[in-house]
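Entry 14. Ran structure prediction on the chain below.
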Amino acid sequence: VPLHHLPGIRLLAHQGGWDEIGLVAGPLAVVAALLWMADRRARRMGRRQDDDA
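Output, structure tokens:
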């Protein structure tokens, strides 16, 4: 299939490095969000245990 029939493919193909940045930044953002949520949950659980004692 000639590339002129697939304009989306040409847009995503090495546009100055932003696509590679997205491949790294996307998963890092997911991991950071999961760690933030886990830390928040752990702090809440710690406060509840302190209140019970």
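The chain is about 75% helix and 0% strand. Will compare against last week's run tomorrow.
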